[in-house]
Amino acid sequence: MQTRMVLTLSVSLAALIAVTPVLAQSSSPTPQKDEDITEIVVTGTAYGVSKDALMSNVDVLTRSTIDQKPAEGLGDMLATLPGVRSSAFAPGASRPVIRGLDGFRVLLLNNGMGAIDASAVSPDHATGTDPVEAQRIEVLRGPSALIYGGNAIGGIVNIIDDRIASAPAKDGVEGRFTAQASSVDNGKQLGLNVKTGQGPWVFTADALKRKSDDYETPVGPESRRLTDAEGEEPDTRDRQENSAVDLSAYGAGLSYVGDFGFAGLSVKHTDTTYGVPGHSHAEDASDHEEGDDHAHEEEGPVTIGLKQTRYDVRSSLNIAFAGFNKLTADAGYTDYKHTEFEGEEVGTRFLSDGYEARVNLIRQKMGDVSGAVGFNVLERHFEAIGAEAFVPSSTTREFGTYAQSRLDRGAWGIEGGLRGDRKEITSAGFSKAFDNLSGSLGGFWKPSDHAFFGLSVTRSERAPSDVELLADGPHAGTGAYEIGNAALKSETGYSVEATGHWQMDSHSAFSLDAHLYSSRFDNFIDLRPTGDNEDGLPVYRYVQTDADFWGFELEGGVNLWSRGAQAVRLDLAYDYVRGKSDLGDIARIAPSALTATLGYEGERWKSHLEVRHVAAADTHLAAFETPTDAYTAVNVFGSYWINPKVSVFAELRNATDEEIREHTSVQKDILVGAGRNLRAGLTYRF
């Protein structure tokens, strides 16, 4: 009966796509669209640059796109973008992996300010901000965002919300209500955003609730490779145990808006509890490879309770001073608490609180030259308490100054920047400071309105984190005993990236986007096994070596058919990355992926068939990691605007019930992706 139901759903969705062109021909009011269709990217340059005029690869997820994405963590939501993957630790905890780099090399921002959570400390730690809160999400690959310092050496994900409004509400009140449900995990999600006030005072409020059970799986959570290695029978369970999520988030903001600009403040609270599949503890650990927690299932489920309260102040003032026309001043304070529960008992606790402030003088839209000068200051206090507190308490202080400028003569231009940083890390009996200097220079050529070519070079320095310097203890998140290295130096990356955009306005509507990059790291900080065991766990130590990363991302599309507002389009995307150091291949480098999307779009209907193939990871592996099989995922999606304010959608994900394991995950042999899933939802804008 279940098979018959799935076939019926598949046929229904296929029929939906088939009849879409016919239904879309009926006249209808034009649906509301996002105001930010013109993709001016604010991340990376304080003065903002059009997406197609940047010399690095950037993706922008608008509010409409986010509304129709699956209810999942930040890394999982972004994982299908070219060059981006997920740490895929669990539904409740996922961070983005960009061009083979993750953790402390990928900077997560809220409205351009640091998250100050503990998500980079361990892959089982969730991010403090849910992507559904965003009005837009900007993803920058590579070290192009110079103004944010060394922690952006691998890339940036900036979650931009409208909690502090910069403009009055349309007609006095505007907002949206979203809802979706999914079959594979009995998941439900509700979201509400409201903005009221025509000025000068504008008030905002938002709330989000998401709840899901353990999700169904196409095969047992343990891989056949793992059970064969341990001489066990294949895992026949059909659920990923301890994968449930219960999340609540709510916030409010107040702004004063006028001809001068805007200024405002906001507060947001996040409370989430999520299961950690396969989580282990050191007491009875046995010798397993990194990420293998199989031996500890009998210790019972481990859940994490995360609570975070964040306060922000933002302002943008129109000025006329020394060639600048805008002054921005932002500040934020975060209080983060994270408790690991071992059954009913409290285990390890992680506490992180701190503030960041940033001030910019900006020259924007004044002739051919744009630019910004500014500084930021940050202070973070981190404390871990409990048996698995593998990192001692510490305080991190940072101060940075920067300048960035762009000359755009239309047919050609140049852009460059310089940043200096000082970072101090102190702990009991330990104090160390790092002085870093980073710079970038690039040029572009636009032979026509439909073509753009850019070349940029970047030198970035990243100071080591407190974890890399001071770790000494069992780390359940990776299944290893980790030892830091107090003698670590700053790592230095030298990167070059070539960019090309082609956009034709002919009947074929052909487009192509290409990015080719190469990075050389001196003093690359890597976590490598020593061959020893401590507390029954393999010992891994942070070491420094030289490393090289290289790869490319290609995206292209063409309209196969179009008539009026209707079009059938084929889009393709492919990415490849390789990482190698003097010690051998870098671990958990994402295998290449090819995505093909055949879609239809009309005035009311939008639908697509997506086929995504991720290659096997069976070559160029680090000595201590195991291979990962290839997979092909098929997704079918359709959405319809009932009227200009209400849209509904449905999607069949992983339609073939494929076994999906992500090579970038330390849990890949004990955590498998969700099986076939029907989800549906609606959005009401007012």
End-to-end Cα distance:
41 Å
Biggest pleated sheet: 22 strands, antiparallel, barrel
Helix content: under 10%
Number of helices: 5
Q: Report the uncertain regions.
A: 1-29, 280-298
Structural class: mainly beta
Mean pLDDT: 89
Total number of beta strands: 34
- Indicate the proportion of strand residues: over 45%
**Using only CA atoms, what is the Rg?**
24 Å
Which geometry do the CA atoms define? globular
Question: What would you note in describing this structure?
Answer:
The protein is mostly beta strands. Helices cover 6% and strands 55% of the residues. The protein has helices spanning 2-24, 63-67, 74-78, 224-229, 466-470; strands at 40-41, 49-50, 58-62, 84-86, 96-98, 106-110, 113-114, 136-141, 155-160, 173-182, 187-196, 201-212, 245-258, 261-275, 302-321, 324-342, 345-366, 369-385, 394-408, 412-427, 430-448, 451-462, 472-475, 480-483, 491-503, 511-534, 537-563, 566-581, 584-585, 593-601, 605-614, 631-643, 646-653, 677-685. The protein has a 22-stranded antiparallel barrel. A 5-stranded mixed sheet has the order 3-8-9-6-7. Strand 28 and strand 29 (584-585) form a beta hairpin. The chain is globular. Mean pLDDT is 89; it is low at 1-29 and 280-298.
Summarize this structure as a short list of keywords or feature phrases.
mainly beta; 22-stranded antiparallel barrel; 5 helices; 686 residues; single chain
Could you give a quick summary of the protein structure above?
With 686 residues, the protein is mainly beta. The protein is built from 5 helices and 34 strands.
